[in-house]
Specification:
8 strands, 7 helices, Alpha-Beta Plaits, 202 residues, alpha+beta
Length: 202
C-alpha cells in the first residue's frame, strides 16, 4: 500500500508544484462546488477532490504560486461556512510532495517524532514546517481515511533533530488543531520494521 489515504489502495496525490493548496469542507456537495470554482478561476491542476472520513471533503490543487493563490482565494470564499481548514504552501518541501504521492524513505530509522492533528491541512502544514526546520526524514503520512478525519505523520533522525522538527511543527499549528505530539528516542526494532513496511496504518 502506498499513499497517505487508505481508500483506493492507499491513494497518492500527484503534484507538479511548487505550490500546493488544500481546502477541507464539512459538506461533500459544497466541496465539489469549491473544486469546480478553483479550477475555473485559475489554471491550476486539480490533484485531488473527494470525500474523506468522517464525511468531509478535501480538494487539493497544485501549480505556480500565483495560480494556486488565486484558486485558494475563490475556494475559501466558496467554502464558507462549511470550511474546516485550509492550507497554502507556496514552496512545499520535496519530502512532503514525495509523501503525498505515495513515496517513502525509511532506510535508517533512529529516533521518531509523531505529530497527530484534527485536520488534513494542519498535518500537512506541520509536516512541511518540520521538514524545513530540521534535517529529518518524513517516513510516514496518513490522512483522514480510517482515522476519523484526523491525520498524523512520523519523522525520523537523530534525537536532537527530531526534537527541533517537532518544536517547529508545534510552533506553526493552531493549538486547537493539535491532538498530540510524541517522541520516541530509541524505538524498538519491531516498531521500526512496522514503519518500514507501512503496517501501522488502520
Amino acid at each position: 500500500m502506498s499513499g497517505p489515504f487508505l481508500r483506493r489502495e492507499g491513494e497518492g496525490i500527484a503534484l507538479r508544484g511548487p505550490a500546493v493548496g488544500l481546502i477541507e469542507t464539512t459538506s461533500i456537495a459544497r466541496g465539489l462546488v469549491v473544486a469546480d470554482a478553483m479550477v475555473k478561476r485559475s489554471p491550476v491542476m486539480l490533484a485531488f477532490a473527494r470525500p474523506v472520513t468522517p464525511g468531509k471533503h478535501v480538494v487539493v490543487v497544485t501549480g505556480d504560486v500565483a495560480e494556486v493563490d488565486e484558486a485558494m482565494q475563490i475556494g475559501v470564499a466558496m467554502a464558507a461556512p462549511t470550511l474546516v481548514d485550509r492550507l497554502f504552501l507556496p514552496q512545499a518541501h520535496a519530502a512532503l510532495i514525495r509523501a503525498l504521492g505515495g513515496g517513502r524513505r525509511a532506510a535508517g530509522l533512529s529516533s521518531l517524532g509523531i505529530v497527530e492533528t484534527f485536520s488534513v491541512a494542519s498535518a500537512l502544514l506541520a509536516a512541511d514546517a518540520a521538514c524545513k526546520a530540521s534535517e529529518v526524514e518524513l517516513c510516514e503520512l496518513r490522512l483522514a481515511d480510517g482515522l476519523g478525519g484526523k491525520a498524523y505523520f512520523v519523522v525520523t533522525s537523530t534525537l536532537d533533530l527530531v526534537e527541533a522538527a517537532i518544536g517547529a511543527a508545534i510552533a506553526i499549528l493552531d493549538p486547537g488543531l493539535l491532538v498530540t505530539t510524541e517522541i520516541i528516542a530509541a524505538p524498538h526494532p519491531d516498531l521500526i520494521e512496522t514503519l518500514r513496511r507501512g503496517k501501522n496504518s488502520p
